[in-house]
Amino acid sequence: MTSTPASPTLTRRLQAVLHRRPGLRLTGLLTPALVWLGLFYIAPLALLLATAFFRTNSFTGRIVYDFSTDNVVDVLTTPEYLLTAGRTVGVAVGVTLLCALLALPLATYMALVAGPRSRPVLLALVLTPLWASYLVKVYAWRVLLVPEGGLLGAASPGYGWTAVVLTLTYLWLPYMVLPVYAGISSMRGSFLEATADLGARPWTSFRTVVLPMLAPAIAAGSVFTFSLSLGDYITVQLVGGTHQMLGNLVYSTFSVDLPFAAAVAVLPLLVMAAYLLTIRRTGALSRL
Amino acid sequence: MPSVARTVPVTPPQHAGEVPAISLRGVRKEFPGGVVAVHDLDLDIAEGEFVTLLGPSGSGKTTVLRLIAGFEQPTAGTVLLRDRDVTTAPPFDRDVHTVFQDYALFPHLSVLRNVEYPLRIAKVPRTERRERALAALATVRLEGLADRSTTALSGGQRQRVALARALVNRPAVLLLDEPLGALDLKLREQMQIELKEIQRSSGITFVFVTHDQDEALTLADRTVVFSEGRVEQAGSPQEVYERPASAFVAGFVGTSNVLAGETAGTVLGREGSWSIRPEKITVTAVDREAAAGWSSTVGVVEELVYTGATTRCVVALEAGGVLSALLLNGSGDGAPPLGRGQTVRLSWQPEHEIPLM
Question: What are the residue boundaries of the ABC transporter domain, all occurrences included (chain B) (predicted)?
Fold first, then answer.
C-alpha cells in the first residue's frame, strides 16, 4: 500500500456521507448525464425551434432576428412541402412494416426453434451489419441496385422509392429484430401450446395471443426503424434517384436559409412526437 | 434388439362395456436420438374417472399426457377419444384441455378474459361468455378477482385461473401436468380437496400427472404407476399401496420395506422378495411373545425419527437387513419409550407380506 495515510480516511468519510444521504448519491450520478442532455440535446432543440421563427434577409442572406411565423406557415401550407413530408412518413411506415414482417419469423425461429447453441450465433449474425459503416452499406446497395447491368440485372427496381425502402429496411432491421426477439423469448413455456389446447388454430392463436403479447416489442422496435427512416437523407440521395425526403430539404436549404431549414426540421419533430405519444399507450416505451 | 414389451392390460373397474373417454392402444413414443419415452402402452380411462399417472421424472408420464393432448404424435399406436381416432389430430381439434405446470396464463389479458378465451375461440356470444366465465371463476372461488391482471396474482390464484380456463367450456377430458408442484404444502392439500370436489361435481374425466405419491393416492380413483416408459401397475390407490406388483412400486409408492434373499429365508422361511408396509409392523419388548399366527423377528433399534404424529423406527435385524416400523404417537399403551440400541421384537400378520415380482 503506497497511498498516503490521509486518503483512506477521506475516502471512507466520503463513502459514509454518500451512504447516509441517498439524495446526494443520486444527484452525483445523474448530474453528468443531465448536463450532457441539456447542453447537447435540449438546448439545440430549443435553438432550432427559435430559429424557425426568424427570417433571412433575401439580399444579404443574413438572419434577421425578428419574430415571424412566415417560414412555419410557409412550410405548413405549401402543398409541395407537405407532399414531401407525406412521402417521408410513407417511407418510414413502409420500412417499419417491412422490418416487422421480416423480424417476426426470424425472431420466432431464433427464440423458440433454434437450439441454445445456435442461438447466440444467430444473434451475432443479426448484429453483423451494424459492424460496417453506414456509408459503406448504402454505397454497397447503390452498386447492387444499379439499374440494368448491375449485380441484380433486370431484377433491380432501379433507383427510386422501392430502392430507398429496401436499403433502409436492410439498415434498420437489427433494431427491430432485437426487441422482437426479446419479446418472443418471454413467450417460452406453454403459451403457444395453451392456445392450441384451448381450441385456437394457428392463425387465431397468432392474432389473439402472439401479436398482442408482442405488440409492445414491435412498437419498441418501430421507434427505432421509424425515427431513423424519418430523419434519413443520405440513403435517398444515393439510391432514391431524383426523389427527396424531408432531410434532403433541410440539407439543401440550411446553408442558404437557416430559418427556413429549421422550420422544415420542425415537421419530422412533430411527426415523431405524435408517434411516440401514440406508442406510449402500448407500454412499449418501458421496453426500450 | 428391443426388449420384449411387457404390456399390462389395464381396464377400468367401473363402466365396463361403455366407451372409454380415452383409449391408448399400443402407443409408443420414440424421440429423435432413439430415446423411447413410452413403450407400447395400452391404457383405457373411463368416462368421469380421476386417474393419476405417477412416476419419477423421465418415466414417461408427462409424455403420455402430451400424447393425449396432441402436443406429441405417437411413433406407433392409436389414441382414441370417445372412440374417435385422434392419433394425428392437432391439439385444437381435440375436446381436451390442459392445466399446464407453468399455468400459461396470457399476461396481456385480465383474469376474466383469460377464462373467456376458449369461449371466444368457440365464438360463444359475449354475454353468455361472460356469464359462463364468471361461473367458472366462482367454482374456483375467484369471482372477486375477475378484473385483476393475471400478473398480480399469487401462485395459488394463478393455478385456479388456469383451472377455470380449462374447465369453462366443459372438455371431455381435463389433463393436469403437475399443477400443484409450485404451491406450498398447505395450499397444495387444500387444492387437492377442491380438485377432487370439482372433478366429482363436474363429472369430467381428469388425468393428473404427478411424481408425488401422496398426491397420486389422495386424488385418484385409479393410479397408474410408470417407470422407464412402462406401466408398472395400475389400480385403485389401495391396490397400488397394499398390493404393490413390483419392488419398484413398493419402493416408489410409500416406504419400501423389502425382505429379500437370505433374510427372507431366515425371517419368513420363504425365498423371494417380500414387502411389508412400515405401519403394519408392531414393535414390542424382545421378551414378549408375538401374537399367535403372527410373523416376528428380532433386531436392534438403529434410528428413531420423530415426525409429529408418527415416529419412524428403523431396526437392524439380527437376520440381516433393515425394517422400518411406523409408530403412531398416540397416548401409548404403557410401553416404555424406545431408545436407540435397544433390542426389540417386530411382528406383523402374515397377510401383510406382499410377494414382489
Answer: 22-253
pLDDT per residue as tens digits for the range A120-167: 999 999 998 888 999 999 999 998 888 877 777 777 788 889 999 999
Query: Which sign does the torsion angle of CA B273, B274, B278, B283 carry?
Result: negative
Q: Which of B92, B106, B117 sits opposite A196 (nearest CB)?
A: B92
Residues B216, B68 share a domain: yes
Provide the domain limits for residue B297.
273-331+338-356
Q: Same domain, yes or no, for B235 and B310? A: no
CA–CA dist B120, B235 (Å, integer): 39
Contacts of A197 in chain B (CB under 8 A): 69-71, 91-92, 96-98
Does residue A31 carry a pLDDT above 50?
yes
- Do B316 and B226 fall within a single domain? no
Same domain, B180 and B49: yes
Select the residue of B106, B108, B121 nearest A199 (Cβ to Cβ): B121
The count of structural domains within chain B is 2
Q: Residues A38, A43, A45, A46: is their CA dihedral positive or negative? A: positive
pLDDT computed for residue A1 by the predictor: 47
pLDDT at B208 over 90: yes
pLDDT category at B3 given cuts 50, 70, 90 is very low
Q: Distance between terminal CA atoms of chain A?
A: 44
> Residues of B with CB below 8 A from A190's CB?
100-102, 104
Decide if B12 contacts B19 (C-beta within 8 A). Answer: no
CATH annotation of A70-287: 1.10.3720.10
Distance CA A204, CA B117 (A): 11
Q: B350 and B228 share a domain?
A: no
Tell me, yes or no, whether B230 and B121 share the same domain: yes
Task: In whole angstroms, give the CA distance from residue A91 to residue A142.
Answer: 18
What does the domain layout of chain A look like in residue ranges?
70-287
Please name the member of A197, A208, A215 whose beta carbon is closest to the beta carbon of B91. Answer: A197
pLDDT tens-place string over residues B260-319: 888 888 888 888 888 888 989 989 888 888 888 888 899 999 999 888 888 899 999 988
CA atoms within 13 A on the CB side of B337: 8
Written as nine digits, the cell of A157 is 427496381
ipTM of the complex, rounded to two decimals: 0.78
* Lowest mean pLDDT across A214-223, A263-272, B113-122, B287-296: B287-296
Q: Report if residue B12 sits inside a domain.
A: no
Calpha distance B227→B230 (Å, rounded): 5
